[in-house]
Amino acid sequence: MLVLAATYLMFHEMGHLVLHRYAVEYIERVKSPFYDQTDDDHRRLRMMEIQADSYAVDAMFESINDEHDRFLRFLAAIIAHLSEFFLRHVPNTKAINYPHLDERLKRVIKKIDVQHPGYKMQLDLTLTIGLQTFFALTFAEYIPSEMKDFAFNDSDQLSDYLFRLIDAWKAK
Fold first, then answer.
1. Which of 119, 128, 130 shows the shortest CA–CA distance to 74?
2. The pTM is what?
3. How would you write the pLDDT of the chain (172 residues) with one tens digit per residue?
4. Are 95 and 37 within 8 A, CB to CB?
5. What residue spans define the domains of the chain?
6. In Å, what is the CA distance from 84 to each residue of 36, 63, 74, 119?
7. What is the distance between the alpha carbons of residues 152 and 161, in angstroms, rounded to a whole number?
8. Which helix H or strand E contains 171, and what residues bound it?
């Protein structure tokens, strides 16, 4: 699994090489210590990250029709994105030159197209347990004092709840 997660990250970086080879001078300029980045620079750099993420997903699933292989690759992509969450000290996923971590993860989740209910459940559990672990590691209160407010009919409701908490942190 770690090899697939590392492969996803490698494809992301390869996406930068393939898609942004024309922008090397621009990237060097805006990332130099004496350059004052503009809002347009932040937007452009975030877009480059989104493009590289998309490239990684596309590359991971090129010619993969087997349901189990697709499941493993989606699981790896989720784990790769969650690993970035675990480097944070506060439950804030905002970034200046990168898309917010939660938005990047949501883009991967939207592309999930496995049909097997067991695989879908495993992906949902990995996502929700990963987000809850993120909150626990950052000492964020994510379990309401009233446990009746912490009941969900399915994992989609739980993940929606957890992403709303992240949105609340980003709004602070």
1. 119
2. 0.88
3. 789 999 999 999 999 999 999 998 998 999 898 999 999 999 999 999 999 999 999 999 888 889 999 999 999 999 999 999 988 877 778 888 889 999 999 999 999 999 999 999 999 999 999 999 999 998 888 888 888 778 899 999 999 999 999 999 888 8
4. no
5. 2-171
6. 26, 28, 16, 23
7. 9
8. helix 155-171
